[in-house]
Amino acid sequence: MDKKTTEFYIRLREELNNTSDWPSEYLYKFIVPTDPKKVEEVENAFDNMGAVIQTTQSKTGKYTSISVNVMMETPDHVVEKYIEVSNIEGIISL
């Protein structure tokens, strides 16, 4: 992970600590190239967590947006999940 990414996650962790009581519901938003395997990889990352997952294809069908609403224990867990899914090729975290 580069310095800029590390600094982003440090700031995110601090903001989450200051703005929410934990455990708390958290909404992840991702965009992936439309490929059932990539969508499945994201869904699998949140498997057995009680997550509510919604997917929507772009108008051209080239991309799929994925919204994941899930209860997270701490800001550290939120950041860990972002890092975990960042290994999926082509994923954009919003």
TrEMBL record:
Protein's organism: Flavobacterium silvisoli
Organismal lineage: Bacteria, Pseudomonadati, Bacteroidota, Flavobacteriia, Flavobacteriales
A Pfam entry, by short name: DUF493
InterPro entries, per the entry: UPF0250_YbeD-like (IPR007454), YbeD-like_sf (IPR027471)
The name this protein goes by in its record: DUF493 family protein
